[in-house]
Amino acid sequence: MNVKTHAEAAQEFILNEPRTDWHDETLWFVRQKRDKAVNTVAEWEILRDWASKIKNHTLSNLDHYLKSFEENAIANGIIVHWALNAEEHNQIIHKIITDNEVKKIVKSKSMLTEECHLNEYLQKKGINILDTDLGEYIVQLRQETPSHIVLPAIHLKRQDVSQTFHEHLNTEKGNYNPEYLAESARIHLRKHFIEADLAITGVNFAIAESGGFVVCTNEGNADMGVHSAKIHIACMGIEKLIPKISHLGVFLRLLARSATGQPITTYSSHFSRPRSGQQMHVIIVDNGRSRQLGRPDFRNSLKCIRCAACFNTCPVYRRSGGHSYHSTVAGPIGSILNPNLDMKANSDLPFASTLCGSCSNVCPVKINIHEQLWKWRQTIAVNGYVDKSKKTGMQIMAWILSDPKVYRISGKIGRWVMRTLPFMVNNRLNVWYKQREMPEAPGKSFRDWIKENK
Amino acid sequence: MIMGSRETILQAIALNKPDLAELPEVDISITSHYNDVVRQFGAMIEAAGGSVFNMNSIQTLLNEISAIKEDGKFVINLFGDSDIDQLKGLNAENLEELDTCYLLAQLGVAENGALWVSEKQMFNRLIPFICQHLVIVLNPKNIVSNMHEAYNQINAASDGFGVFIAGPSKTADIEQNLVIGAHGARSLRVCLMDLVDS
Amino acid sequence: MKVGLFVPCYIDQFYPNVAVATYQLLKKLGCEVSYPMNQTCCGQPMANSGFSNLTKGCDINFVKNFKAFDYVVAPSGSCVLHIKEHLKEGAKPAELEKVRQSVYELSEFLIDVLDLNSLEAYFPHKVGLHVSCHGQRGLSLSSMSELVAPEFSKPEQLLRMVDGLELLKPDRIDECCGFGGTFCVFEEAVSVKMGKDRIKEHRANGVEFITGGDTSCLMHLEGILKRQGNDIKTIHLAEILNSVR
Known about the structure:
The structure holds three protein chains of three kinds. Chain A is an alpha/beta fold. Chain A contains 21 helices and ten strands.
């Protein structure tokens, strides 16, 4: 299957310029809300530093903390599973479903389950999962993937949602009122929560010292599901761990402010033990994370707490949309995580950036995203995943630019051609020339000038 | 012998992890504090779409509860005389028509309007989420400045479940338009009451 | 003060006036300015495209030309940042480190080393400030809108010393222009869209000129402005600071 590169997909996205402007402005607004919120916390930069160091420490002792977490969770009556990869994660969930004759399943937002393509896996076996996060619910009805890990339907306008709800929920055609649409979803989904026998959630933070975990939502959909259902499955990547409960003070102060500009999500639910009579499962998933841990240049991308602040600030993401990244996790963080999963398929992503560095500045756990983007480019080139023509071009450039005489002659010739034979350069083969004029080609270089003016 | 996934994962991590990095010292004394925590707390609840009001005596609240019950609404009062065993036994179907829930919060956080409610206070985990309207009673003396102080005071893992609730449920998933009342409670009223015996 | 003038390759070839202005300005301010005649390029175009393993020749040439100077000044944030972060061949580690430490972008040199607080300069125009990313976030030439930190800006400080100049800032004070090196052709659509959006904000301010510390940004914006038939001109910071009555 031919997957478009980021550049190709972005080009298509931008063809609709008004829509691109709308997408860009909507996400920039989220960035502005973030700025307002973080500036109310005088010690914000210190919080980031603490969070970064706590995560660095945890990653450097991850096996120990995972074992502690497991031991404490089991002692509290939680059933702990380990999944090497996406397939195993899906199989584990499938087995729980069949073992317990589960009929109805609800899921609150979990990017990990998206990464593992859980819904498709179960669908092939005739089992349906209902996504209850409103944004996820909307894209599920539309048979699309989320374009943003926190705001899944950010690429859609209210007219799109209205049309989808009209088709699937029989809401009034042409009624675009967000309150009306959200209310319709509330009423429709309420029944599903009540009837569900299995609720699947993600994990925002897992705590080693207690064996418990925290799930953050604004909608209350995670809680509506898990407190009704007789089985709760929580899915977590190995990197979601933090050592102590008190560390939640740091992370919960950073997460929502970075993600949406709220001081905290409406609900921060702390799970330590299943309720009486309930089965609670935690699935610990690797799926390439331990491999990333072994990459010195890229391992601290695992500090990510999935806030998407980097998406909102990225001028490229805002103008290309999440689907251009052909991956579950898009944006700047996706561009440093995904090449680890499949370097060839994701070799375009680290180049979908101007390396402006804004992402690294908004990252609450101080991942040096823009530096890792640069480093991934080197790794991808060394592994041979850069276009042959690009590589040849670079080799020629390197030769020209490292020899002073060759450089001077090439420069002189180039400028002469631009002045006397402009059509050779100003044509459709010149990508720059598509939407920009070429710079003027002066008769003398600076070196020529200084020779005459010394 | 084929290694199980657990062993494979742990071994890979042991092999790949970097040298031990130190845990930082989280010095709470440098974190933001508010002179008027009650005022800040109230402002944050209101900014989140909730409301705050003062009440002098618990009797006023009990009167309100009686009045709503008389209207025929399904109400649960979790800090009054509640039949705990009966409450614990209520399932989702039983609670579908729950209109209003009254409960007590252990602590409030000024920086974000969050209220800590643990299983001890709610008896039945579903109740605070499935109700249409939520009224939380809090002693203003139990409001702290920030989350670090909050975690110092509560024992977040002592009960099987606990939650910080910081407003009515909401969503902005439709074109970033804020809608109050998603799947959880449509409204949150916080009643500040200096309880003699909380 | 002996200064080695480092002129980025594209300035040498396409915008020599920027280098002329830098040269004249530094001399005016009392520096003894030398221009090593065999300099070429810092190697950034290759490195940013994934081919830092092809920059050995550029590194060696750079060190050869500049190792004798305690101060190397360039009118470019991105080239200076590249040298500081990625110069790795051409001499022993200690010597390389010395070269990396000796390189300065123009505005940081004027403010931090020459300690400039006044300037005999005149530029009676409405000027929009474009903040170039690598200089700002890489070299800390100015504060960054993402961080909770005190505001400052070395380029702005310098521009405020210029008589008659009315400085206007766009709404998004430090969003990237979209040049990004080879990004400008390999992701042409996004690159141009980003540039157009910057221009829209400057146009809304009614500026006559857009200035900044990096000619790469200005070249990209100028290309779009000319194609649009727009009157706004681009001009490098050095050229403004070197303007007199």
